[in-house]
Amino acid sequence: MDAAAQRDFFAFWREEAVCQREDPELFFPIGDTGPMLLQIDEAKAVCGRCPVRASCLAWAMRVQVGGIWGGTTEAERRLMRRPAVRLRHGEEPGAEAA
């Protein structure tokens, strides 16, 4: 997907996102320990009521952006990508990395 198509797709589902009514800083915690865990949980709760959560997550997986998107943290999305990377390299699902 080229940059223009990504912007159009982002604009389409973003209009319906519940997070539009929230403070944007909620979705960009500085760290993932201590008080930031409460912020992450609060952001994920907003995502949990969002009708476009799946589209948001798909966009974040494709663009690899930081912050809370589609109810996931950047670290969680990174873990979600790992099986796909292994499959592209011809490894069996569940195989141990060498």
Defining traits:
globular, 98 residues, mainly alpha, single chain, 4 helices
Overview of this structure, please?
- The protein is mainly alpha-helical.
- It has one domain (3-88).
- It contains 4 helices and no strands.
- α1 runs antiparallel to α3.
- The longest helix has 15 residues, at 74-88.
- Pfam families: Whib.
- Acts as a transcriptional regulator. Probably redox-responsive. The apo- but not holo-form probably binds DNA.
- Belongs to the WhiB family.
Provide a compact summary of the structure.
The protein has 98 residues and is mostly helical. The chain is built from four helices and no strands.
SSE layout and pairing:
Layout lengths: L2 H12 L20 H14 L4 H11 L10 H15 L10
Helix pairs in contact: 1-3
Rounded Rg = 15 Å
Please provide the count of β strands. 0
Q: Beta-strand percentage?
A: under 5%
Q: Largest sheet at a glance? A: none
Measured between the Cα atoms of the first and last residue, the distance is 33 Å
Order of helices and strands: HHHH
Q: Helical segment tally?
A: 4
Look at the structure and give the mean pLDDT: 83
**Any idea how many domains?**
1
Silhouette = globular
Return residue spans where pLDDT drops below 50 for at least 5 consecutive residues.
Answer: none
Structural class category: mainly alpha
Can you give the helix content as a percent range? 40-55%
Binding site for [4Fe-4S] cluster: 19, 47, 50, 56
Pfam families: Whib (PF02467)
GO biological process, one term: cell redox homeostasis
Cofactor: [4Fe-4S] cluster
